[in-house]
């Protein structure tokens, strides 16, 4: 990739002689666990000569930097594929605020090519496949189309997943009935609404 040379500290150099470096935006008050994860990533990448800075900022600035495309990189939890038809932001440049790695491509997609920056072929193919998938009521065809989207996304490897979310837990009194033993924990679920809490009731 052209990063074979290193400086005296062992960090890789770009072809122009500058160090390979970027910062990663993260919101510590919202996701303190992401800060911890990035500190591990920082050490691991330093071992292979890549220098990053964990840039802890507050949420409003995080959005401002992202919306203006002023960030190098940013971290955010992925929806986990619970319902990719509702939230495919991590599979291609689709979400105007959530696809942080490719906001100009998102603008191109949502404006039908009038704004933003034309994306590469893999992205355009995923956009076309997703549009076809949401345009059909045939679930088998939709699944086949989305499988192609997933395969292309895996090959492109634009968002980098670091770890799965930890399991969460809830507490319910023993006499509260209709509470499920397990349920998905996700924004796109959206937890706890599908557990139908309006049908929970207390026994004697």
Structure commentary:
The chain has 204 residues and is of the alpha/beta class. The protein folds into three domains: 1-75, no CATH class; 78-162, no CATH class; 167-204, no CATH class. The protein is built from five helices and five strands. The strands form two sheets. It has a three-stranded parallel sheet. The chain has a two-stranded antiparallel sheet with strand order 4-5. α4 (121-134) packs antiparallel against α5. The model has no long low-confidence stretch (mean pLDDT 93).
Descriptive key words:
204 residues; alpha/beta; three-stranded parallel β-sheet; two-stranded antiparallel ribbon; 5 helices; 5 strands; 32% helix; globular
Which word captures the global form?
Answer: globular
Fraction of residues in H or I helices: 25-40%
Q: What strand order characterises the main sheet?
A: 2-1-3
Strand content: 5-15%
**Helical stretch tally:** 5
Number of domains: 3
Rounded to the nearest angstrom, the distance between the terminal CA atoms is 69 Å
Low-confidence stretches: none
* Rg, alpha carbons: 21 Å
Instruction: Give helix and strand order, one letter per element, not per position.
Output: EHEHEHHHEE
Would you count the extended β strands for me? 5
Characterize the main sheet. 3 strands, parallel
* Average of per-residue pLDDT values: 93
By secondary-structure content and strand pairing, the structural class works out as: alpha/beta
